[in-house]
Amino acid sequence: MTMPALKIVEPALEPHPAPTSIAPPPVAIVAISPSFNRVARWRKGLTLPLGRDVFEALWPPITGMIIFLSLWAFFAPQVKTSLGALPGPGDIWSAFTGLMVEHSAARAEAAAAVAAGGLYSGPPTFVDQIFTSLFTVAMGFILASIVAVPLGLIAGLSKRFNAAINPLVQIMRPVSPLAWLPIVTMVVSASITSDNPTLAKSFVISAIVVMLCSMWSTLINTAVGVASIDKDLLNVGRVLRLGWFAKLTKLVLPSAVPYIFTGMRLSLGVGWMVLIAAEMLAQNPGLGKFVWDEFQNGSEKSLSRIMVAVVVIGLIGFALDRIMGLLQTYASRNAGR
Description:
Structural class: mainly alpha
Number of helices: 11
CATH class of the domain at 125-334: Mainly Alpha
Number of strands: 2
CATH topology of the domain at 125-334: MetI-like fold
CATH architecture of the domain at 125-334: Orthogonal Bundle
């Protein structure tokens, strides 16, 4: 009797499941200080250390100024004028210190005169004329902003009003301050007839000329800023039935603030340039009159003093532009809050 063959059945091999990705352990989020982050990025070669960043930012302008002063010191003695050689940087510094000494002496004389019960009647010093010019340009700039910003808002909101004043703006904008000065002088002289007015005629003339020449940048930029507002915002204002004042303060001004301050920044720069010419011709005390008086004086120190005034005018213009830039940044960040 034969035994049946045994059939061995092997168990089916089940395929191993595909390895699953192992989730990384949770990582705690730690706030990293900017300085630590900068150091870490520097170690990885992604950025420069803080000191190197400062060096990279400062060496180009410092190098440019050194090269400019060196060329100025080299070529200035070779330029001959009717008042002698063109002053170099050292001569300018000597003239500046001399003007500061004169200012200190004048202040001492004024203090002594006041202590004696009298009044100081000496001529204004260089420092006094700097503050006079700053006050004059501030008055002209304020007047220009008071006139230009409302007109720009209306022009941006109304196409018809914009079309009506646009030709006038384009015609008056390029007029030189030398052309405005005689007209303003005659009008102010006819309007102010008092022998002892509150504001001197020369000051009023200079301020109005600054206003007339500097207001156009603010007006144009304000109109462009208002006209470029998203129409959806204005539609939302109509849906919410906002009043005119609410729409102006909540929708229009926050959107147009960067444009307005850009125009005001340009206007202030133009006004500062115009002021010097206006003070020269109107004989209003200020840096312009100081330059003109030194030119008429024709002494050995006049050219150096004029150059001092030129440098100071440039530095003040740069400082005013930086101040307006900071105000523009602050106003843009806080608009609509």
